[in-house]
Design a protein that fits this description.
By secondary structure, this protein is of the alpha/beta class. The protein has ten helices and 17 strands. Strands 3, 4, 5, 6, 11, 12, 13, 14 and 15 form a nine-stranded mixed β-sheet that branches. Strands 1, 2, 7, 8, 9, 10, 16 and 17 form an eight-stranded mixed β-sheet that branches. It is globular. The structure holds flavin-adenine dinucleotide.
């Protein structure tokens, strides 16, 4: 019996898809991918496109982890800002990395069209609204995005934002027409089906338990069998175990929460836009209307990986705080997922000291970055390009062990306090801390 997905909006609106067998024999391939989230599926897709023979091992089901339960926002960029990136890479390196992140968005779009994926519902537009008054700051951002990246952002006045988002919490906003939102689980299931159709071997409920070096490559062991491969790519995200000690000590699993409401009558009295919405707090809210009358709402980050008993109530309160007119809303489902963060907040894409390729650490910005990771890893394996080197400044830094967790949680609380402080001065112009 195949294991089921956890209860999410996405599971409730899943496209038809096959269940894949568990590994029960030995196979010889060029590339063995460990992890069937979007990083693993993108790597498998790109390797197959280069004529490589691929096997993918997934502990649970395809996109069972973060890739099948996230907000579905697809935007350029990374989990950290351009200035932080440039500090390690210099301006030219940061610009090249930004361009890769844009390519990631484009590949997702192309895959949806090329593979004619069912029920992925790509919908254009992401609106970022601020909770303090700073028209000049946002207008400067529009000009900067155009100058630095040639990117288009539209400035929205407070009136325009309030027409779309009927909440006193918001001031001005930026609308990104090139970003979009979609159904990430159906996208991942579609990629999986295309991998299988192209001859890729997918094994579900098949956790890789050991990797041993051998002449010309590696042997990857799972309960029912073995994969002999020239290359191994670890794509285990926030669910990374001790398969590679170097990878395990270089990331922190961070949980984040989502909620789906029951249908809401006249939802436009609160949210009156087909765009997805995010505020600009450091771990702020992000949400969108789905099925025309429900809200899919995400927020919170924590180093506590077990779900709190009152997860649904925590999230319900966040909605009602922003939209008091929805105080009677009913919760249909609430869930969490684990993201993988490196201390430098950038993806970790490269090779471990054991010689294993890895593509992890996508944080809360994984839809485009997992995608471009798959491409640059495949290019490196096929000897086609060395674009992977652009990520080399963001290596497998130690996560700080238990102190790393404490530091992350403390930083989050500090940032929350700074956000609250900024909003308290909401009516003062330029109230940035
Ligand atoms: C609630 C939530 C909301 C988010 N919202 C957004 C958003 O709106 N936009 C955005 O860009 N990003 C978002 N993110 C981040 C994004 O979802 C992740 O960055 C991305 O999905 C990571 O993909 P992945 O393939 O690295 O990891 P995952 O999708 O977590 O996949 C890793 C897989 O590896 C498997 N695995 C682990 N160890 C083994 C093993 N030993 N053997 C076999 N399999 C193994 C796991 O079972 C898992 O399925 C969100 C994340 C969460 C949790």
């Amino acid at each position: 019996m195949p294991e089921s997905y956890i209860d999410t909006y996405y599971r409730r609106s899943m496209a038809d898809h096959p269940a894949y067998p568990t590994l029960s024999a030995s196979h010889q391939v060029d590339v063995c991918v460990v992890g069937g989230g979007l990083a693993g599926l993108s790597t498998a897709t790109e390797c197959l496109q280069r004529g490589l023979k691929v096997a993918l091992l997934e502990r649970h089901r395809i996109a069972w982890g973060a890739s099948g339960r996230n907000g579905g926002f697809v935007t350029a960029g990374y989990a950290t800002g351009h200035a932080q990136i440039a500090r390690r890479t210099g301006e030219a390196g940061a610009k090249a990395l930004h361009d890769l992140s844009v390519e990631g968005v484009r590949i997702v779009r192309e895959n949806i069209d090329r593979l004619d994926l069912a029920r992925v519902n790509p919908t254009p537009g992401i609106l970022r609204a601020i909770r303090y008054d700073d028209a000049a700051g946002l207008q400067a951002e529009v000009a900067e995005a155009k100058r630095k990246f040639g990117a288009t952002l539209h400035y929205l006045s407070r009136e325009s934002v309030q027409e779309k988002l009927k909440s006193k919490a918001y001031f001005q906003g930026l609308y990104s027409p090139d970003a979009f939102h979609f159904h990430p689980l159906n996208y991942a299931l579609g990629l999986g089906a295309a991998v299988a159709q192209k001859g890729g071997l997918i094994f579900e409920q098949s956790p890789a338990t050991a990797i041993a070096r051998k002449a010309g490559g590696f042997t990857v062991t799972a309960a029912g069998g073995k994969i002999e491969a020239g290359h191994v790519v670890l794509c285990s995200g926030g669910y990374t175990d001790r398969l590679s000690p170097a990878l395990h000590r270089a990331y922190l699993p961070i949980a984040t929460y989502m909620l789906l409401t029951e249908p809401i009558a006249d939802i436009a009295r609160a949210i009156n836009t087909p765009a997805a919405v995010a505020d600009d707090r450091r771990a702020g809210d992000y949400y969108r209307v789905v099925d025309g009358n429900r809200i899919l709402w995400g927020g919170c980050i924590t180093t506590r990986t077990a779900d709190p008993a009152n997860l649904a109530e925590i999230m319900r309160r966040r909605i009602v705080d922003t939209y008091p007119q929805l105080r009677d809303l009913k919760v249909a489902a609430a869930w969490s997922g684990l993201m993988s963060y490196a201390r430098h907040l950038m993806p970790q894409i490269g090779r471990t000291p054991e010689g294993l390729w890895h593509a992890t650490g996508f944080g809360g910005h994984g839809m485009n970055t997992t995608t471009i990771a798959g491409r640059v890893v495949a290019e490196a394996i096929a000897g086609e390009s060395d674009r992977i080197k652009l990520y080399a400044p963001f290596g497998l830094d130690w996560n700080g062990g238990p102190f790393g967790r404490i530091a992350v949680q403390a930083t989050y609380w500090y940032l929350q306090a700074m956000d609250a402080w900024r909003e308290k001065g909401a009516h003062k112009p330029h109230a940035r801390p």
